């Protein structure tokens, strides 16, 4: 009887396990099917939710990881896409899609050794893979192994004479050899033969930009807008170029259209303010911008103007601009961004208690709002409450590691508390984790200059430009440091490096002008964009 009872128990347990497995498989299958529907509709947020549900039920199905990787790619989450593909390769080491995607993502992320290794792995099995040849050739071009890059481009075009990647790679090699006009002619010929594409036009844009050829750059942007009407990044780059070429009115019109297309999008508003701060008030004409905003009557644009005035410490004007858009009673989702900015204006006007009370109300409404938490850090710092500011800044940096302002605020609090070792550590860690961010570089360099460590600042800037060779901001900061330290060899390295940077010729002229001024005994200020280094 005991044996019989035990057998029945084991059989029942086995049946339950089978039912549970079947249930998990069914849940995963249904979630994956819903993913397919959402993905086809381009509802990538819902698609990600569903495929993660499928993986929560069954995480050993390679195709589910492939689907997660595709949706991460579709939303620009490249690191997450790479991690999903890596998990797929663990389950299926021979999955060609995953290996090829990882090679391309490694190249995009600057991991050239990994990119080349993965490309070689695929080429060992598929020697005519144009995707992997392009990765391998691009790595060779980045390393300035121009004979190898040219040979790979020719090999690609021998396989497929109309291959776009091969033509672009060949043009890049010509440019790196110093034949920019030849590179432009190569791409214009490819467009005439095969038609326009985003990849060819973007490459042409870089080439025209290094020549400082505004009319051709403008025409190329117009063509890109036609191909990608919803691409906000392109429009911000065009607005930047318009400001740099003395056309602030056209830039404002473009930004106003962008705001209307993205109503209520705080990220777009923030990018407009960041753009205004980057190009400088001398190019923007803030008073002209204000008149323009007053004429348009566009609420998001007025809030963005308030943000600009706040960043320029014109607190009374910012308070007046923002006042109509803030919550006088309970905090509401539609006005929370204006509320945060208004608190900053109040703090700047010396009304710290009101500012703190408003920020506290915002955080009770949305305890995870990073802008509100940053504002409370600033209000507390201004009021001398460094202990409270430190608590909030540590939380802000922990929860929002990519937020430059939060990382800088934390380091600044350590400086104010007389803790230089902690300040140095906060800056160094932030720079390590935000190794591609020009604003973080500027803040770190400013800190090193304030503490009279110019050579160390130059080492940091040199490493940044090595890791981000197309960063115009990085080269600008490094060039200004070279000039301030009277390092002629360093200046020449910068002049050579900016040759391949979009807008590099304009930057070169600026640096040459400053070098001439220094030589004449009229040294230009090197206090950084914010003036914090002085």
TrEMBL record:
Any idea what this protein is called? Tetratricopeptide repeat-containing protein
Positions of TPR repeats:
62-95
**SUPFAM superfamilies listed in its UniProt record:** TPR-like
Where does the source fall among the domains of life? Bacteria
Nucleotide-binding listed as a keyword: no
Q: Where is the signal peptide?
A: 1-24
Keyword set, alphabetical order: Repeat, Signal, TPR repeat
Checking InterPro entries in the record gives: CellSynth/LPSAsmb/PSIAsmb, TPR-like_helical_dom_sf, TPR_rpt
Indicate whether Transcription regulation appears among the record's keywords.
no
